[in-house]
């Protein structure tokens, strides 16, 4: 009762692997040394995994589901394979929070028995292990989200999404790490520590769904669920070379999740999938929709998966699309690898017969400021109250040495009045209207008779940066305010020659200069390069479909001589 | 410039009828005396109207559209007929704000010429005059919403809905009266004065869309648009014997309207239709949806009109529905006529082969308190700033003598912090979740295999009360917080014998006792009796369809011997 917060945290952490069979845990000497930065291929070499484990964990979501449904692989087998690899991933990057092996395997066994007995699958995700960001509640399991003060709070019931995933036959099997407060684009907290990027462990895996990023990149999970209020799905997806999807507000049920800043009804956090393959994104979204989540979460929009919209009925049936690339946001110019990712994409789309025009950024800095102002209206009070019970400090920097300036939030900022908040929200409404008008007006530039079909832009001005150096996520935040669905597609990796630093003289802003000065391809060695595909509010189906077109174009271009 | 607010208001009011042809204005002696309370049938006798004017203004929306499309009646003719009757209605009840005859007739003429030339209608509402609550902006016309301080602010552009209505061929022809601040369930302001109920002018027409209520009841408009954040469409509809529909948040575009309490993103005001016939409600909603409003207003949900949902695919295709009647809310027991309206409905539904069970009210008082707390978070500051430029007082009572206690709002209440507001909004989320769970659980009581198809309940504990005596609208507010679509259906009128006062001893609350003591059928003579049909979030199509079923059952029962 009177333990220090450090003691409570250490005690919790010391029991983290209690449910893991010893043979799944790699010995210290079998693991890469701390100096080995790139560990992305290590699990394939790990002797914890059998050949079958490797085959299974390298499979796409569609392939897994097919082999599960045909009983080629049992759910116990698939869950075990991913669990073993998840533990390896955790030892490499510290990506997990809650681990509950017996419970998951028992559920997998039930599913296997059901299939054997009835000859039919329980649902569209039958037998598939799924990882969940720590905040997604599973009955009788903790959701600390990195607050020492929340240790010991076991969920009284599943979140609605977990109920739905289980009804679809999925097997939740691990929960994943987050930053304290959830409001950082990196992943570090006093309970579970820091998550690293498996492509280069001196870099962040991003945040706040940073545990998901590292875990899935290492193929320790075929499909994970994160949340995104300012980039928290897209940033880990982008930094870790994954597909990650931020749907519009209120399509995936959020009810029953633990969260910070609850009651802030204006800029909504949303749940969404991360996966190594794009099929995982679509399968997840369509499956969840099939369960009529609006009957379980009052916030969810009553709208079924639309095959018509997926077939791009509003976008010329997917022929001769016109994409617009926002090369930079007018505030910070992206680093060479990020620019190269966009150039690769443009060339691939042109080669595939689509049009590509430029997107002129519109009030991006103002939008970013507005969203931050709305959050800081009451964030500090919220954080303080959450941390108060144990007296744990609120983290004000993600640096390795916790002594730098606060980044995203400034906990010294006081709160504002409800009236002042309303004025910010009114401003937000106007920004959304203006941006919508802007998009509609592009009908005059596309040559297709339609406005731009989707925007393509950077996910950040840099690839995954060193720990503590992630700035405000200004390339993801605006789409949260505008409520545009956005999907991350991996394109390449940092190349020391192709991405050499170029001389620059003129800078938009001090941040632009700082970002330029920070760039050195050696710092970012092996970091994944991604693009962000941005659709219009409510166009989840179309955004997935257009992302598939872009992904195919990229793959087609790569396969050219 | 230095005029007093009284002078500014009087000047505005003195020009209200400037654009009206003299022959449309009834002489004082031809109008009923002030002592004549029931004026509902007066327009039919008025010598301002021709026989054709009477025939046209007595027609249903469907019939008007059909006769407009076939060129039996021109839009100039139809608009003129309604305009003339609207002016009579205005002279009887003071229901109008902005009147712009030449502009509307010019538009009607354009539509007539288009039809003559092309043989086709402009859209689904071709030629139909539509009345608009004062806050719905029409380019170059004022939207004062009763603030003297806002006189002279001419709209720079149409609200999105007006653009859509015009593209559908509708003819906006008058704007209608509201209470200052819009946050009252009665209609009175310093600019335009008070609107009365045409069934009994000692009673209120309700509010805040109270001008619409009086105008449409007198058949001065076939279809009007109001707004509803706590009952502002349903209360005038119910008090004036109309159909009125509050859709869920963000289906009908609100962008570009003038409003109070802007930026309060939690409990949203919505626009919706009022009409003398239920066909008007469906025609309006379906027509607006057909114009893809999500491409014009960023808040609108991307969801087309669903014929499948209208056909009640989720409700057993409309056969053997199970309705649940909430006879009272556990706070204030409805007066005899209101109870009788529910009994008539129950009998009619049973006779039509549907099931009817009881709905146990759930936390109705707590829901009402939460919604009020959220509004008052910053309402007073909002109101004060709006009124400040001219120094006009904020109205704190709707009584004929402005000296009673404030009713809905307490302008003495101070604002709260953003953090406190978030806590209220978190509470709201929980209330919504609990209520959804409650509804789902009714699957065990219906005998249909489905949860209750719709709730039927009072719109208020009383019929239209005397001016100044409308209490907090506790029978409409909860559905705004829960975001349930709700449609008002007229059932009957107060009957001095059938609705005699009954002895009662026990009361839920002091409000319950006060309401009981206030009741006397003589006070409420001729007041319309209505019911409220409540669907589930996003079920606009199904709620309209079920209301049609209920309306048919009621009409079928009336036609029985």
UniProtKB/TrEMBL annotation, chains A, B:
Gene3D superfamilies, A to Z: Amidase signature (AS) domain
InterPro entries per UniProt: Amidase_CS, Amidase_dom, AS_sf
Active-site residues, Swiss-Prot/TrEMBL: 133, 208, 232
Cited PANTHER family: AMIDASE (EUROFUNG), AMIDASE-RELATED-RELATED
Phylogenetic lineage: Eukaryota, Fungi, Dikarya, Basidiomycota, Agaricomycotina
Domain Amidase: 78-543
GO MF term set: amidase activity
Annotated catalysed reactions: a monocarboxylic acid amide + H2O = a monocarboxylate + NH4(+)
Record has Glycosyltransferase as a keyword: no
Family listed: Belongs to the amidase family.
Chain positions recorded as substrate binding sites: 182, 208, 229-232
Alphabetic keyword roster: Hydrolase
Any Pfam family: Amidase
Name by which UniProt lists this protein: amidase
Originating species: Mycena albidolilacea
SUPFAM superfamilies cross-referenced by the UniProt entry: Amidase signature (AS) enzymes
EC assignment: 3.5.1.4
